[in-house]
Every structure is written in structure tokens, then in C-alpha cells.
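Below is our example:
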Amino acid sequence: MIDLRIGHGYDVHRLVEGRPLILGGVTIPYERGLLGHSDADVLAHAVMDALLGAAACSVCLSGAAALGDIGGMFPDSDERWRDADSLHLLEQVAARLAETGWEVGNVDATVLAQAPKLAPYIPEMRRRMANAMGIDAAQVSVKATTEEHLGFTGAGEGMA
């Protein structure tokens, strides 16, 4: 019997001037970047939360206790994580999963951003995130979409 778990992750960060735009570990040329305690890589953050939510604790009595979220593992109250490289954090999440007997089967993620166009950067995002998780890039899907100028992402105020 295969014990298959599916996680869901969501993250959002405000776009501001004076910060680099990093998505999936790739620095993308743009006039604004995402604001956060770490590098604010909204894509990597959502993937980490999905992985942590999908993995159950193999040593817990109930067998169903999730591993929490990135706020629990890497709290923004801890200066160790200021400006942290989110791919390094993703490596630590993958290691935490392995410690509890879980492995990543695949990742499917969508970035919500009105601009810039992300399609040229997606292959490298897939490679870098796969490498951080210790899996093949074929196991990682990244998509990007606009929200047709609707909501905060459509207005260019942030990304999700």
C-alpha cells in the first residue's frame, strides 16, 4: 500500500522598491522585489508549506500530525533567517521530510503575478527547486499566470 499525501501551500508578499525579485531561487530582473524577512521567495515558501502540510509524522501516535509550516521552522522573530536564501530553507524542509520517512513525489505550483513575464525563467526555477529537494526537475511543475488586473496581484501590489 502506498501512503500518498498531498499538501497545499500558499504564500503572498508585497512588491517594493529596493529588493531583488527572487522566485524559485532565480533572481529576475525587475524594478521591484518581494518584501519579507528572508529573501521573500513566494514560490519556494508556498512549496515548503505544501511539503510540510503533506508530510505526516511517522513517529506520532496518531500518524497524522502534520509537520507545521515554514513560520514554525523558520520564524521571522529569529534573526538567523533574515535575508535567508529560501532554497537553503527548502533543502532543510526536504531533509526534515526525509528524517520522518517521507519523500517528495512531485510539486505543482502556480505563481500569481501581473508582471514581469516569468515564462523565460521557469525552466531554471524548476531545476533549482528540484535540486534543493533532491529530486529530478521532471518532478517539478511551475506555472505563472496574471489575474487580469484583478485583486492585489493584478494591481501589481504583490505576488502569490
Observations:
- The beta strands are 13-16, 21-23, 26-28, 33-34, 107-112, 140-145, 158-159.
- The first helix runs from residue 42 to 54.
